Amino acid sequence: MEKLLDIARKVSDKVEIYSIEQTVDSISFENAKLKDINSKLQSGTSIRIIKDEKLGFAFTKNIIDEEELVSNALVSLKGGVDAKFNLPFTNDLPRLYTYDPSIENLTTTTIIDECNRIAGIFAAKTDGQVNIHAGRMIEKISLMNSNGLDLSVKSSYYYCSPAIMYPGSYASISRVMTTKKFSQTPGEHLDFILGTYNKSLQEAIPGSGRMKVLFLPETMYVLLWRLQSAASGKSIYENQSPIADKLGEKLFSGNLTIYNDPLNDQFPGARTFDDEGTPGRYFPVVEDGVLKNFYYDLHYAGKLNVQPTGHGFRSAMWGGEAISTKPIPSLAHLYIKPGDKSFSDLIRSIDKGVIVANALGAHSGNIPNGDFSIGLSPGLYVENGEIVGYVKDAMVAGNIYETMKNLIAIEDTLYPAMMGTYPALLFDDVSVTTKA
Description:
By secondary structure, this protein is an alpha+beta fold. The protein folds into two domains: 2-199, PmbA/TldD superfamily (PmbA/TldD fold); 209-434, no CATH class. Helix content is 19%, strand content 36%. It has helices spanning 2-9, 66-76, 108-123, 187-199, 221-231, 233-237, 298-304, 343-348, 400-403; strands spanning 14-30, 33-51, 54-60, 129-145, 150-165, 172-174, 177-179, 209-215, 258-260, 283-287, 290-291, 312-313, 328-329, 334-336, 352-356, 359-360, 371-376, 379-383, 386-391, 394-399, 407-410, 415-417, 420-422, 425-434. The strands form five sheets. Strands 8, 15, 16, 17, 18, 19, 20, 21 and 24 form a nine-stranded mixed beta sheet that branches. Strands 1, 2, 3, 4, 5, 6 and 7 form a seven-stranded antiparallel beta sheet that branches. Helix 1 (2-9) packs across helix 2. The chain is globular.
């Protein structure tokens, strides 16, 4: 990286070098039997240069010729992308527990044994098809720039995601566990999957209307995707946010607090800096229902003449590789403050309603405006405080700025899920449509 930085500094005003190394082992079980084992080593380096306030970018998975990579970045300057921002110099960051060395000795045999253990527990209590995905990853990210920044972080990940499939469908009940080292999937995770699945095997027809809707942690991303879009500096700059003029206003239920916290090393993936070297910090987005902050990377902070907030990340959520992308504003460590109700308490408080256990079409609707319209796969019907079955061909629709005002209760436990770490949330007066 030092040689690449030296070459690039001679032909540009500012330089940033980003590199990533990953070791990944993944295991998949289908119908309670080992289906696949995959192992891969991958690495890559990208460069951003700024010359005459224009941005150049290039990347490679294998540096053979540093001068060629710099040349490619110089060619991309012809795109004319403005870059009116400075690169940070960051040091004296706190120490976090991001890496557990025991992950290096974790074998695929141990992971397979754990999957077999889970499959055996499920097989004794259900006839449903058992699928399991599990694995480990070791990741090192390094970042240097022409201002003297020189940072790196090494992280370890172990995950296990068991699921029980509904007959004749791709719908399932699942829950993922993520840790920094190997550990057995907790019994409460397995009990949740088994209990929820076994109670919902019969088809139920609740009818359409407005009713209580419980979003599991695994589906909260449907709602938070809309909020992330609206609160992003990119949306603010492009005049696409419906909340651009609402800082300090109470938009949601007073029980709702949503925050970003990259320094929380209780879960894997903690970071003291973003992918541009800006320091990370606890960052409230919504606090007690009040909109507190928008979030920025260097690029959009420069365009709007505000301070960057440490949220510039290379996002490849829907596929692709992070190394091939430039940083954008991203809430990469999002949380919802837990409440005081157990999952059982939430169920018991539903007289009539549905559980969104998985979502189809999360991209549907006007995302910047907060609209959503999703299929339930599965949706579970609850009546008089009990799960009584699953719902076929059901949809839930609304707008987050209405739905999230009608928050009834929040689960007391956080679970890793897509786009963050959340509890389950119960809302009232949500539109549910079922096939007659």
